[in-house]
Amino acid sequence: MNNKWGKEKREKPDISDKLPLKITSISPQKKRKDRFSLFHENTFLVGVSSQTLIDLSLKKGVELTPFLFERILDAEEYQNIKDTFYDYLSRRDHGSFELKQKALKKGYPSEIIDDVLDEFDRKGLLDDESFAIKFASDKAEFKQWGPVKIKSALRKKGVSKSIAEKAVRSITNDLDQVQICVDLLTKRKRHFLRETDTLKRKQKMYRYLAGKGFTGSVITKAIDTIKNDFDV
Fold first, then answer.
1. Is 85 exposed, middle or buried (0-12, 13-18, 19+ CB in 10 A)?
2. Roughly what angle, to the nearest 10 degrees, separates helices 147-156 and 128-138?
3. Element (H, E) at 130
4. How far apart are the C-alpha atoms of 12 and 76, rounded to whole Å?
5. Model's pTM, two decimal places?
6. Closest to 88 (Cα-Cα) out of 53, 122, 116, 47
7. CA gyration radius, the chain
C-alpha cells in the first residue's frame, strides 16, 4: 500500500501548474487494476482509484481544472486512509482513537481522518465498547493482567473512562481475581522462596501482583490464602 500519498498530498506534481487540461484518455494501471491513469494526449495527469473515478465522474472530455484537481487529491487521500484503516482492522481490532493516532503519524490531515472515522462509525465498523471489552478479555485471559493495568492501557488507547471501566467490570465479574493472583504466585513460588527474609518475600509478592495490575485488597487476600505455603 502506498502510504507516501498522505505525506505528499499537497506536494502537487508539475502538471498542476499547466491546468486546466482536458482528459483525453483513461487507462487501467498494470500493477493495480483498481487504479487508473488519466492522460492529456501523451501527458500523464494523475492516478486515481476506481472509486474516485466514479464519484467525480471522471471520463474522456472532462476538463481537469485546478479545482477538480484539488477534489481528486482529497478523494484519493480519503480513499487511501480508508484502505489503511481496513488494513489495520484486518489484523486486529482497533479503537477510533488508536486508528487516528496511527493515521496522524503517517501524515494524513486530521479533518479527513475524522471524516473517514465518521463513515466507519456509521457503517458499524468501529465500536469502542466492543473493542474495549475484547481488549480487556484478551489481556485478562492471555496476559493475566489485573483490572488496574487493563484500565490504564485502555485509557492510553483513547478509550473513554466510562467505557474502560465498563470493560474492566465485564471481565472482573466473570473471573476470580484472587484465584488468578494465587495461580500467578504459585507459578513463581520457587522465585519468591529465594528471598529468605519473610517480610521482604511478602513485599516482592505484593509488588509483582501490583505490577500485573491487581488491586491491593485482592493482592492481600491472595497472599493470605497461600501464606502457609510461602511462609509469609
1. buried
2. 140
3. helix 128-138
4. 13
5. 0.69
6. 116
7. 27
Q: Where in the chain does DSSP place strands (E)? A: 21-22, 25-28, 35-40, 43-49, 63-64
**Over its length of 232 residues, how does the chain's per-residue pLDDT go in tens digits?**
444 444 444 444 568 788 999 999 999 998 888 899 999 999 999 999 999 999 999 999 999 999 999 999 999 999 999 999 999 999 888 999 999 999 999 999 999 999 999 999 999 888 899 899 999 999 998 999 999 999 999 999 989 999 999 999 988 876 899 999 999 999 999 999 999 999 999 999 999 999 999 999 999 999 999 988 887 6
Residues 6+ apart with CB under 8 A from 42: none
Name residue, grid cell 489484523: 91
